[in-house]
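Forgive a beginner's question, but would it be possible to get a protein, spelled out as residues, together with the matching structure tokens, please?
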Amino acid sequence: MSTSTSLPATSAGKHAIVYGGSTTGLIAAGVLSRHFERVTLVERDRFEDSPQPRKGVPQTSHVHGLLTRGMNVLCDVFPGFQEDLKAAGSHFMDMTGDHAWFMGGLWRPRIKCGLIFYAQSRPLLEWVIRQRLQALPNVRILDGREVTGFQMSADKARVTGVQLRAPGGEQEETLEGELVVDASGRGSRTPQWLEALGYPRVEETHIHVDVVYASRLFRAPPGFTADWTMMSIAPEFPREKRLAVIERIENGHLLVSLGGWLGTQPPMDDAGYVEFTRGLIQPHIHEVLEKAEPLGPIHVFRFSHNQRRHYDRMARFPEGLAPAGDAFCSFNPIYGQGMTTGALQAHTLGECLRQGLGGVSQRYRQQVGQLLTVPWSMATNGDLRLPEVEGKRPPAFGLTNWYGDRFQHLASYDEEALRTFSRVMHMLESPAALFSPRMILKVLTSRPSAADLKRKPESPFAPASAKGQAA
């Protein structure tokens, strides 16, 4: 395990509190350790000293994506984190070279783009982060406690701490701090608590998508020799609504997530779960599951709506409070932006603290509001392509979708377009990069070759002599 992060010579305050041991909460605690003499992380669940799922993370058993921008934040907060994650069993894969990726009706070229995707279970990722956090001398982890409300200044203009109790218990205790970070997830009670204190109710935007996905762990079948670490089959909106992802994770296991929009979901019985993959537009995942051995139950996750709380628009908001992660904005998880966006919010909070503790809540809320604009648009604009999804379509929505479809088609045979899209997806470039004059010209004039249209991955059970013969 790498050594812990060294602390700066100066700090913004004496004590900061983070409640919610999510990925965002863990990263936020690491960031705050550089700015406060002491940091306390409060979590309702009990943490195990091993990578174990827990009740407070309903998505824990499903495929997760940590984008390059998110890993960059983690490595800044915990130097050497990549090495720790790899040593724990994570698979590092090139986003396009090791990913069999069907999108826009075609398979993407298998080229090296230099962007790394990290394939592991959510419990393993959080356990490695938690190990690094526990190594910090000024961080205390207080699990088995739930936050029941805020401690406020006499004029109710500042949050000065939180009230705690054991889940189901009656006796409360007060934990005082100069900054409180709410990383308790999309079910955060901050809106209700602020309203009870006389603050206006935060405005919320909801876009209902009724996404359901089901995941299961498998042992790779005999003869499995796939040349990919992950395979994903994305639907063509609005005609299709099914999605499938399979990835290799730690211990040589295969993690599969199947699902779709507007209630489309696989059956929960063994045969029905496998049969659902027969209806995918490509057969490869079905070929694997027909022969793979299930290693546990099917885990279901239901996501009713995208949810954005507009804390940045509130004219009155207490100092000393910073909502983060899903407590601020919760995206459709199928787009894989959640953990990375949460990491960026934690990073933003650290940057705001460099200017001092005074006014930090106001600076943070405004900057996160701007930060969320792009990932929110990317997720919700994708969902709004389904005519059944209710919500206000942005200006030129039809034209943008037409161009986006053409760009995805281009990325299925043009390496520059694929690399550009991958950098935008990993939040390393603005979506404006898709609309550069060079890309627009290619979208309007380029055409795939016959070989591009026939490209497909090798069968995961192909004999050695057949390897490399696929187009």
